[in-house]
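FORM 7B - TANDEM STRUCTURE REPORT

SECTION 1: FIRST PROTEIN
SEQUENCE AND TOKENS:
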Amino acid sequence: MKPSPFWRMWLIAVSIGMVIFGLVMILFIQTAPLSSLTALIDLTFWPTGDVSSGAAQFQKWVYAAWGATIVGFGVLTTFVTLNAFARGDKWGRDALISGIASWYLLDTLVSALSAVWPNVILNTVIALLVAPPLIATWKSFESRVIEPPAAA
């Protein structure tokens, strides 16, 4: 049985949202709409608000690299969702779950240990957005058996 179109579209929407957010980080991280996010992170490392020019240049690069990683992860989850997950292939569900779980656990742990609470919150929001479709469709994958290709 294939997962319902509703949950597939939910996952695709979250994945595309990640792509858009990553692109916004790359292109607009040092602009007014995102300054509140960077200001919260800055307070963790520069409590006085005094960010040197070298650190500001590093931030520009690291936020762009972070955004590019989010774009790549969003593209990957979109394609897995549109293909293997949509067909009901168990490996598609397992790939999404293992990729998202490993990202969430590692990134959130490192962020919490570094007291970067805005990232902990952002990660948790994303995890809470992808969890419902993965939970709701879990049994859709249980009965699906993929036959090996026939010998030529």
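SECTION 2: SECOND PROTEIN
SEQUENCE AND TOKENS:
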Amino acid sequence: MKMNKAKKYDQAKPKYHVVPTYALEEVMKAFTYGADKYGAFNYSGGMEYSRYINAAIRHINDFLQGENIDESGNTHLSHAVASLMMLMDNMAIGAGTDDRNPKYLEYEAK
């Protein structure tokens, strides 16, 4: 007797299984380092958006200059991704200060 396949209407929902798990694990290491150093969820207090961007760019620049590992023992790229994720989270929850150039924000609005 053939069983009918169960129904689940989740086609439009995010597909967590497509996220690269090795990269995600590296980013989790960076977050763990930050939680141990500053406290879990410290980033939720918010700060100027530019500080997250500057941190991400510094880590990317270090990587581009041939340095793979940060002083924390984690990869520069994982810290760059973590910085951007913290910014995205701050934007989602309304934390932090949007200190982008207001003229650029006006230009984008057009």
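SECTION 3: OBSERVATIONS ON SECOND PROTEIN
The first helix runs from residue 21 to 38.
The radius of gyration is 19 Å.

SECTION 4: SIGNATURE
Preparer initials: ____
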